[in-house]
Every structure is written in structure tokens, then in C-alpha cells.
Amino acid sequence: MIRAVLARMEETAQYQPDIVCTPEVFAFSNISGGPRALAAIAEKPIGPVCEPFAAFAKKHHCYVVCSTYTRDNGRFYNAAVLLDRDGQVAGEFRKIHPTVGEMEDGVCPGPVDPPVFRTDIGVIGFQICFDINWPEGWRKLRKAGAEIVFWPSAFGGGSMLNALAWQNKYCVVSSTRKGIAKMCDIGGEEIASTGWLRPWLCAPVNLDKAFIHAWPFNRHHRAIQAKYGRGVRIKVIHENEWTIMESQSPDIRIADVLKEFGIPTHEEFMAQSEAAQDARRKA
């Protein structure tokens, strides 16, 4: 399985990916045996499973997310190990919500506060498979500044991933053992997905964009377009009354444009509205 996944990753190398993500504990997807099996296969990164993926990361100067079992102080975890462009460990996320079956086999739940990792491509966070059923972990990642959340999984996740992307206003990327793997943008739309014609995906994502409540800030659209032209892309999702504002130029930062025109992000606008509501309730 490791050889097969590495061979597939080599297929993506022509695209010079910044980061490659593997599916949930892919190397052991057909192995069972409880705590005794975990004691034999769980590693302290970088171990036998992570090592060839660290070599890939160094060879292709990219990040790699190696999803495997890890050990620490006698405990075993279902983990996503982040390997940097030099093939070194940049961090580890431990699945917060393992299934009952996993725990019976000896997997321990990870910390309830998921870490984020600051990289040269953005702030990265993780959730793993069953974690999709607990929105709080995903919200905590947003509060911690995550811009991309990777989701190694045993199943596809479906529309739940699209919903989590727009609810938290970050890009969600899945890597699955069955079903579709996909990349969802901050508005929940799919940027790319796998299928029977191609079992992997590689696509660019622009992180310099903002999710905005359309009304009443749509009144600034004409002035922004008049000043910045093609340098700023404004996409209105009319039924939802959302706006996605995106930089199309390395010389333009969307945060600066919002500040210039006094436009809050969707999250800021909701917080302002809630504060005003609370104040009037007290009055």
C-alpha cells in the first residue's frame, strides 16, 4: 500500500504540488488485531511509514501529510503527521473523536483543541474522518486562524465538507479511501474532485479572498471595480446574499481593500450584529 500511494504521488509531481495529503491510516486499512497490532505498527515519527514520505517531501520540495498510527508515552493515536519541504516533522494532529471500534483496538482520543501549523503556503489545520460529526473542532480551527483544513478519511464525507467550508470560511481538502475526494473553497463550492477518470486531484487555491455579507456592502462594488478593475474579482452568490471578494494581483491585498471601503468580513459583521442585539436585550 505504501508503494502504491507513493507511485500515485509521483504522478502528481509534474504539477509541482505545494502539499500532498494521504488518506486516513491508508497503509493499514485492511489490518486489524487490536492493541497488539497497534503496538507493532504505531511509530514515533519519523518511523518506517513516514520515512519514505519524508523522502518524497524532500525530493520534491513539498509538504506531505502522512496519515498513520503514532505512539507517545505508551498511548496510540490515529494521526496526521505534517512533513515539511525538507522532509522534517512540522507537526502532528491526533484524531479527536476515534470511533468506539478504534478505541476498543487501543486508539486514544487526541486533545480537544486542535493545533494549527503556520507554513509558507498558509495556516493549516486538520480533522480526521469521524471528527466530521463534531462541528466544534472545525470552529476552533477557524478561531485559531486556519486557512486550509485537510481531512484524511476512510469515507467521502459528501455535502458535509461543503457545508463545513462555508460555515467556517476556509478551504477544506479531503483525501479518502473510498468515495470522492475533493477541494472545497470558502463559499462551499467544489474547486476539484476525484472520479473514475482520475483517482487524485491537484488544483490551485487562492487564499487571498474574503467572505462577506452581501447587503448592505454591495453598494461599494462599483467603486471597488472602478479603482481596481481586474485586480479584484467580486462574486455574488445571489440566493444566499454572500459576496466572495478575491485578489487577482500580487500587488492587491483583500484585507486592505476591505479596510479602505469599511467593509467587515461576514464573521465580523455577525459579531457586530450580535453585540448590538445583546446590548438591546439588556436595555
Describe this structure in words.
By secondary structure, the protein is of the alpha+beta class. It is 32% helix and 25% strand. It is built from ten helices and 13 strands. The strands form three sheets. The protein has a six-stranded mixed sheet with strand order 5-6-7-8-9-10, covered by helices on one side. A hairpin with a 5-residue loop joins strand 3 (75-83) and strand 4 (89-94). The radius of gyration is 21 Å and the shape is globular. The mean pLDDT is 95.
Please name the defining characteristics of this protein:
about 280 residues, alpha+beta, Nitrilase/N-carbamoyl-D-aminoacid amidohydrolase, six-stranded mixed sheet, 10 helices
